[in-house]
Amino acid sequence: MVYAAECFSMAEQRTWPLSVTPQHAYAEMIRIDMDDPDDKLAEAIDHIDSKPFSIYEVVDCEEGKVRLKDFLGQIISVDQSCFIGNVKQLARRNTHLSGVLICFSGKWRFLGPSFWSKPEKKYVEKCLSAMRREHHIMHDFVGQYDDFVSSHGGERLYFFRNEREHRRWLTNELKLSAGELPVGKNENHPMAVFFEDNGLMTNCYEINCIKHPKNPVYSTTAAAENSMDYFIQRLCSPCMMIYLMKHDLLPDVMLNDMHGQEHGRRLMQDNIDFLARCLRRDITDDAVSRPRTFLLEEEAGDNDAKQPLDMFVRLIAQEKSIRSKANKEWRVVSANATTTVIRDVARRKEHKIPTRAIYEAYLALDADQIQVATLVPFVGREFAPAASALLYNVVGKGQWRNNLRKQVNEIMNRGGFAELYKWVSDNMRND
Description:
By secondary structure, the protein is of the alpha+beta class. The protein has helices at 2-8, 22-34, 40-46, 87-93, 121-139, 146-151, 163-172, 220-226, 229-232, 238-246, 261-270, 272-280, 297-300, 309-317, 355-364, 372-379, 384-394, 399-430; strands at 49-62, 65-69, 75-79, 96-104, 107-117, 157-160, 191-195, 201-204, 321-323, 329-335, 339-344, 349-354. Strand 2 (65-69) and strand 3 form a beta hairpin.
């Protein structure tokens, strides 16, 4: 029981680094330590059952057992050995027991202190009523919208420009009556509705980071800046979070990375399931919702791996001010799959270069081959300096310097020299 008590003392908290419950982590540690995947103690810990802190009615005390009734009317037999004092006498004098129950190796007992009491019936009914209501909400609506979801191709996420549009959808699509409609708190705020696994509907009011074809307010800029809030501030339910990851609806979420935004984005996307569990700690479904889909170049052992066109366009589109190897300043005005516009800052002249031509050069040249002369066959003599500066900063030898410059500029804009000094000091300390 010492094992049980230790591993279950924080049973509701999922912990680092695997974001699993302590009982499962403890069981796995025992299997590793004993070098036995079939260790019986580990198996018993893995299958600990529990009932949260609650009030239980004392039914009787016979044959070494105290029989209790929970708020759902289920009978639980608890061994008398886990109590101190004359148990039969306590059972006669009191009507209820309160505490946390666990079942270890088929035996129920209280974890930690338990409290005998003889409360007023009014108080007991109030407690039981609240517990039954919560249980009803969480368990008794399963499947109520399954037909609706099935008839809409399995879609469980719906977007609305405002509360008025949401209520109209509830009335027309779900056939709710006026008395069943919710009272809107954010009348003019965009929102989303999600159908949970337990049959409930939950609302999400921060939706401009969700890249969904039906989302009217999705913004790539907002998504790049604020998507991490879904992991840190829990802007949506755990079930909705799993859905967003499973369907790749947060493609812009990224980690801050010295190798650049794209590297940080890919690092986050490749480990999104793991990081969501670690940061949120409220995802109880142990099934992996988003398996790793690609390896970073460093992990794959191929530092020269080339990106597909759409990824390449994303890389250059996130650039703003860049400097060539000769320290000449250029500015990326815009970039898409067709045309990339780069401005010569000193001459105030814009160059409209076919993106495909730049991409062909990227595919053909190694990082140390990128220079004005080698770009001429791909983009022409007029555009070669601009294209060379772009590739040098984004995928060439100037990539590290470009990323460092952007990070320093960001720090300066945020807090000036004091913030820069703090950042340099912290990094030197970490090194």
